[in-house]
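job 3f2a | input accepted
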Amino acid sequence: MEEKKLTGKFYDIQSFSVHDGPGIRLTCFMKGCPLRCLWCHSPESQEFPSELNWMEIKCVGTEKCGRCLSVCPNGAISLGDKKRSATGDEVQLPKVDRKKCTDCGACAAACSAKALYMCGTEYTVDELMERIRREVPFFKTSGGGVTVSGGECLSQPEFLLELLKRCKDEGIHTAVDTTGFARWELIEKVLPYADIFLYDLKNMDSELHVKGTGVPNELILENAKKIAAAGGKFQIRIPVMTLYNDSVEMFDEYGKFIKELGDAVDVVQLLPYHNLGVVKWERLGRDHPAIEITPPTDALMQARKAQLETFGLPVIIH
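job 3f2a | predicted structure (318 res):
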């Protein structure tokens, strides 16, 4: 019997990324996340299984295509609303009954316009390394490398570890973008093969952390301390959200904690909340995020940057 190869499931792979670690990077986004952030801008990252997405703007209508209506084995697709196209023509759209849909992918395979598509692709380490090697010239000229993100990439620990090992064997810089919500034993295994951790701190108050993400923050903070003590390096990332973690008091707590991590911290990145991911919820047939937050002002972002700098921390705004 042929041995089953180790695979990892990814929902996106982005070339020429410049915000996910030093230099030009290839960022690989793994599916699955233990957090359920109320403001999540990548809902396609949350679940492990591949999921059907529906991008209405791409649909050419059932008159020109309509293959999805006949191929669904569960009768989950029927005639839906009509829309006016850019040329002024009326187009008949299909409608997906999410209660009947099993995410089998038959409709996506049949969709000529790729308006229906599956989110979640499995790769072996060899397959992904073949993709990574095409980017090596850009890594070498910019000091970049590979960033493994999510979701939560530590939710697929065996694949993550093997991928990082292979990258290091080939001299490729590695970054692990993580929520920090994982067992220390998993992080400890990854630590020797991760040149830097992009580490999220969403809230310093555990009760508020639970309300915002569904999980407490004690494990996250403890893991950060352990990584620092073990010689790991960080880019600390703080997603700044109005009326959730943007207060002076909260940023004093951020400053004190990050300062304790010492030389392990290369930089603190402040990430102002944006609502560009709302459309992704629609593509999955889900309701919008539980909360929609007003993005913080430039003045507030500059004030919080200056506040953290009083702790002697290097801070940038993305």
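job 3f2a | DSSP finds eleven helices and 13 strands in the chain.
job 3f2a | closed
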